[in-house]
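Please check this record.
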Amino acid sequence: MSDLSMNTGGGDSIPIAKKDEILKEQWDQFFLLNSSLMDAAYDAVDGEAMEGALEHVLSKVRDDPAGWGAAARMDQLLSYLGRADDPRAKAIPGKRKQFQHASKATFNMRRGLMKSQLQLHKQNLIEQRNPRSIICDREDTQGLNRKYLLDVSLAGHAATFRHAAVAAQRGYIEVGGEDWTIIGPAESCIIQNSSGEIEFVVVRKAAGHTGLIDLVARNVDEATSNFRSLRPTEPGIMTGNLLRPQRFSGDEILEMHHRLLAGSTLVWKLAESRFPAAVTADVSKELGKLPNFFTTHIPEGQGFTFKLGEMEYAFPEAPRCPPEVYHSQNYSSLAHSEQTTTRFAIAYHALRREESLEHSPALGGDFVDVGLKVLMRASSDTLFAFNAKHLHGTTPMQHIDQRGVVFPFSQRILDAYNKTRECETVLLDEVVEAPEGATVVSDNI
């Protein structure tokens, strides 16, 4: 279980009533967000393990004088799992010793209420999203690679962008016709083939928290504004290369990288806790083949920290997201496929704003799986998993402001990493075998 610490950085200046509201929301969101903590707690609520887990978290903040603010907040948070009329939920916690010696009966009561709360949350997630279930098989897509995707279901879309496709001599594919499946902007969906294998999953309102959505969107803005686009010939920006821009100092780059680490890992935690087991199992088997997220300024390891408002959250022992992650702004692509190590790639649309002008509507920016004949309308806070080995892309857009994150699990990244490790091993062997004092000149780098 990950250690959780919280501090306000600015003292206890939040009004008590507002603080209660904020703490309740934070408990709901962040306890559910950390999927490993959620699953461990949910599995252990009927035994003594839950009591031990809570006591473990509390001991981390109680015994640290610098963590007194965190202890007070944990006191308040846990009071919500006790009685609704618990006076500690209505006043600033101040009786540290009294809380340290809370009775086992109170702990058991809280444990039971935690179980009820988690069961209610899981049921709400199912009911709120109510995913649509579709069965369909892929069709042949030979000869359709690198073509524009023109949406005939949106008035004006195909007409607006057809001339660009013709001018580029790329050709185009008409998507969204009568024989296509169109997933609405508020609709969650699971698509399976006739063999029962999952092909496509869409989860709307994945985070359900404005602060988290804004945090990820700001991270995308920062990445796409300061790092080079990997696909400069295509509309919009997609970046994943965090090499240092010259205009920033080392400390500024370090802070930026930590923000991108946190935002990317939060999206990854959402994916782990929201997708069906078939999706998470597929990507999990590949995680050990590469180190977790690291950059030129952040070494390999674990843990991440982020701020929402004046509150800082630290997960020092939590696993980070995979190292290959891309941030995109207003990006649209032709139909294409990728060589990946997994069946699924994972993407998150954090933010979408439409800014229609008179006589010029907002159009496009929707995801397309060509073989499945599926068109997914883009909307904010949407998490989806798709098979990147098959033709997919995004419809051209105008007057759309869109931000996203994707984990593709590219085969080329794994191959490059393995090749680097092989070269390092060969060079190390040459150094070990060289006579003392000799200069090693190698052709293996």
Observations:
- The mean pLDDT is 74.
- The chain is about 40% helix and 20% strand.
- Residues 104-129 form the longest helix (26 residues).
- The two ends are 40 Å apart (CA to CA).
